[in-house]
Design goal:
Layout: H1 2-22, E1 25-26, H2 38-47, E2 50-58, E3 61-68, E4 74-80, E5 83-90, E6 104-106, E7 115-122, E8 127-132, E9 137-142, E10 147-151, E11 162-164, E12 168-172, E13 178-186, E14 191-200
Parallel strand pairs: 6-8
Antiparallel strand pairs: 1-5, 2-3, 3-4, 4-5, 7-14, 8-13, 9-12, 9-14, 10-13, 11-12
Length: about 210
C-alpha cells in the first residue's frame, strides 16, 4: 500500500512538472531578441506592440511580464546578467494585474466635446473607465510616459491601429460598446500624469 502511494505521488509530481513545462511556449517571432541587453530589448518589445506589466526577481535572474496587445497573450522574459535568456508565452493568469488597490477613475466627456482628460497622480493598477459606442476611434494622448492596456467590455484587449509621434495611440472599438477600461501597467508610483482621451465616430460625433 505504501509502495503504491509512493508511485502515485511520483507520477503526480511528474505530471505537474510536465504540465508546467508545456505551459511555456517559446514566442517564435521574438527569438531574435535572445541575447539582447535588457534596456534595448524592452524598447524593441514596446515597438513590436507588447505592454510591460511587472518584473519579479529570483536569485540572479529576473522575470518580466508583458501583454501582447494584438492577441492578449502573456509573455515572460527571463533576464540574466543583463541579457535576455528566454522569451516564452505563459498562462494568461500570470499577466493579471492586481486590482485590489487600484482606483477606478471614470472619464466623462463634457457636453459638446469629444474629449475627456485626467491630470494628477497615478499608480500602477489604476483604471480609467470610458463609456464608448460601437465603431468609434479612440485616441489616447499622454504627456507623461507610462504603459497601459485597453480592454473592451468583452474582455478582449484592443490593438493599437496607429501610433503618432506625439505620444498618441489610436484604437478602434469595432462592434463593442459600453465601459472600456484603460489600465495603467507601468508608471513610477505616485507620479503625476496628464492624459487625454478622445472618441470620434465616422461623422465626428461622440
Amino acid at each position: 500500500m505504501i509502495k503504491q502511494s509512493l508511485v502515485t505521488l511520483v507520477f503526480s509530481a511528474l505530471t505537474l512538472i510536465t504540465t508546467q513545462v508545456n505551459a511555456q511556449t517559446p514566442a517564435p517571432s521574438l527569438q531574435d531578441l535572445v541575447g539582447a541587453r535588457g534596456s534595448s530589448g524592452e524598447m524593441e518589445l514596446k515597438r513590436r506592440g507588447y505592454q510591460y506589466l511587472r518584473t519579479e526577481k529570483s536569485a540572479t535572474d529576473s522575470y518580466s511580464y508583458w501583454r501582447e496587445t494584438s492577441t492578449g497573450k502573456c509573455l515572460t522574459v527571463r533576464t540574466s546578467e543583463g541579457r535576455y535568456q528566454s522569451l516564452v508565452y505563459v498562462p494568461n493568469f500570470d499577466c493579471r494585474v492586481a486590482q485590489t488597490s487600484g482606483r477606478r477613475i471614470t472619464i466623462s466627456f463634457p457636453s459638446g466635446s469629444h474629449c475627456g482628460a485626467y491630470a494628477g497622480r497615478i499608480n500602477t493598477g489604476d483604471t480609467f473607465v470610458l463609456n464608448l459606442a460601437r465603431e468609434q476611434q479612440l485616441i489616447i494622448e499622454q504627456s507623461t510616459p507610462h504603459d497601459y492596456s485597453v480592454q473592451a467590455p468583452n474582455g478582449e484587449y484592443l490593438e493599437v491601429i496607429q501610433r503618432f509621434p506625439n505620444n498618441e495611440n489610436q484604437y478602434w472599438t469595432g462592434n463593442q460598446f459600453g465601459n472600456f477600461q484603460v489600465t495603467v501597467a507601468s508608471v513610477p508610483q505616485g507620479r503625476p500624469i496628464d492624459i487625454k482621451f478622445c472618441a470620434y465616430t465616422g461623422e465626428g460625433e461622440l
